[in-house]
Design a protein that fits this description.
Protein name: Diguanylate cyclase (GGDEF) domain-containing protein
Number of domains: 4
Helix content: 40-55%
Pfam families: EAL (PF00563), GAF (PF01590), GGDEF (PF00990)
Organism: Amycolatopsis arida
Shape: elongated
Radius of gyration: 41 Å
Structural class: alpha/beta
GO molecular function, one term: cyclic-guanylate-specific phosphodiesterase activity
Keywords: Membrane, Transmembrane, Transmembrane helix
Amino acid sequence: MPEPYGGPTGSTGSAMAAAPPATDPYGGQVSREARADERRFRVYTMVVLAAGIAAAVAVSAWLPFERDFDLWWIGPLLAIAFLLAEQLGINVDVRSGISWTISFTEIPLVIGFFVAPFEVVLAAHVVAGISTLLARRVSGRVLYNAGAFLLEITSAFAVAGLVKQAIGGEGMPWVAALAGTLTAPLASTLLALAAVRVLRRRMRVSTALRLTGRILVVGFVNASVGLSGYLVIAHVPGAWPLVLAVFLGLSALYWAYSDLLREQRDMEALSDVSLMVARSGQQAAARPASRTDEFGPEVDVDEWATIAERIKDQLAAGRVVLRLRLEPDDAMRTVVVGESLPPVEPPADDPLLRLPGAHVRHFRITEANPEVRAALLDRGAQEALVVPLRSANQLLGVVEAHDRLSRWRGFGKYDIQLLGTMASHLATSLDNRRLLATLRHDAYHDPLTGLLNRPGFRQVARDPLRERPGSAVLRVDLDVFSTVSDALGYAWADRMVMAAGRRLRDTLGPGVPLARLEGASFAVLLVDQSPQQAHSVAERLRAELSAPYPVDRLMVEANAVVGYACTGQEHGDPVDVDGMLQRADVAVRATRGGEEVRAYVPSMGQIFMRRFQLVTQFRQSLEEGQVTVHYQPKVTLPNRQVQGVEALVRWQHPEFGKLDPDEFVPAVEAAGLIGALTSFVLEQALRRVRKWLDEGLRISAAVNLSVRNLADSEFPAKVLDALRRFDVPPELLTFELTESGVMSDPQRALPILRELHSLGIVLAVDDFGTGYSSLAYLRQLPVDQVKIDKSFVLGMGTDLGDLAVVRSIVELGHSPGLTVVAEGVEEDIARDQLEAMGCDVAQGYLISRPLSEERLEAWLQARTVRSPGRHAESVLVLLT
């Protein structure tokens, strides 16, 4: 007969473990739906109990009790038989939180039809069921199971009585007894399916029918065995050995089937636990950064309680305790499900928490040494399964299971094997979760200072800016950063940045969101602050950052500027993090004349209007010839031959005059118009190269690429089309790209670069030395040239550190056979030093400033002569 298991449980059969979970099956917190499910189940319990009592009264009135005090022992004997049959049950999981136990309770029930009246069988059944519940320490569903017990027996005797009346005759016909016995598991199953519906658990109709059919088959086999045994014994008193042999054979069959079901349930439990931990880690990784600070992710205990509940149900344990260390330097966090844990904190030398290895240990209070016995008594447990969770010899936690409840016996070898395998899966999942947490932390934090980075600040500040009207965003710039970098090198500048970050954190306190945006620029979020208070905080921060910085044995004088923007400055203006940061940035740029702290005012929005005008007018400016291309020559070292030119864009605006590329190129790129700009520069450069080819000269042209160009899968086809239209060999075209541009999305950029390289186009890494520079990085990219950033070249004559950096880059570039180009060559000494190092190409003001096409032609004619040759292989030689 089906009966509950692992939660509410009865002796001969109620329907199910029908408790709605307190948490979502995959680690979510308690929801309104779960609480509503529990309320509906309480109402359903009252209905089942009331229906059971009413049915019992009705059947008792219909089948009056016939007293026979000589047979007083039948009732206790039936109760004992029900209890014994209960202990041989086979547990079958149906859905999460819902399971049946197939038992032999139909055998004493069918015999009860022949030897006892309705009231005695009913009392024996209810007493055995309630006793089993109490023995297993299950008290949460006693009323539901009691009502189910009543309905099972009353429906069985009602059907048996109807069949008996239809057949007629004396005594209880075996057909009536068989029909009544089969009615009991059918009633139990219908109650269970109704409970599934009440709890809104999903179960297909085909699954319900298949389950009902199997339960009826098992019930028929049990009832047939009991009925056959009774009839044989009643007519052949010496048939006990035969009946006993049949019973033992059937028991062996059930136990074999039970082992198969156990293996299936164990595999499902392993899968569930691993999936719960994995989804818990994914949910933690998906939480907004507003639920984190600079010190790690918030831990949701309810997620782990759900996992512990699943382990507890599978082991049928009275209590499961998870002790987890979710962060490397974190203390153990304890999660308890089941019976409450006595309020005794385990000592540091607790023998159950310092187990070696990663194997399951089984402790019984009757067999343990005094130290372990004391630890079990502190936990209020008679026995325990304990297994450490380890990964790479690192203790991640400990799992404890206390006091098995589903059998009178304790934990067995199957439980030990299951918990060991679960612990292995759990340790692996925990390790992966910690890895995800680390990756997420790195994604939202600056590696140098440990503060939030721009994406992290965006996540943290998003909700407060929307929900708290009195907020302010501050941008703090340490404006001596570039000077320190040029004078002392980036290592010392980084030290200053770290020191500045510590000063800001100490001034603001631990609860204020603080981020490093880039370089020596920081952002601060102030919540519930008036503009006057924000200004006061900005002044205090500027004063702290402007104090001298001890660098080695020097005291570096510093200066800081702060710009801030408050919410609610413009009516109806949407508040978003990027917009507030942009306003604070504008305020920083507006600091002039010794005023180091400025608040954003709407009039500063003219800067945004100017950028908007530039973006909207850009295409028209291309068509009207306002945008032109200038060329800066590059010469080889040491023979001073013109190797090529770099194409540089210039914009002569009719209203704003000559615009610096640093002003309009980022705006054009952000507006998605960089493709049009790149195409314009590319065509102008190829047209110039074609003219030189027609004149018999081979001079290459270099064009700068944007990150967005490297994300355009159609870009290589467009370049190939342009090369064919101008009939320019691909080796005379060079594309220059920055390290940060490639590494911002290498999976999208690398295929584009490889396709361009396969066309024969020369690829160069611009600003080399300022980003991810390494030999492994160079080998990963399909590049032909590296360009040393001009900041190093400019400082070579006075800074031995810059000189060493340049020499290292030259050697690093030559190692895989690349051409090394030096930018920013403005002095003879720099050129001579580069030539001595073996640098291949030089570019800079010493050679020439960027020139328009007409001035470039004049420059070439004035400073070069044609080398011998009649065809395009001729080169130009720079005269000195």
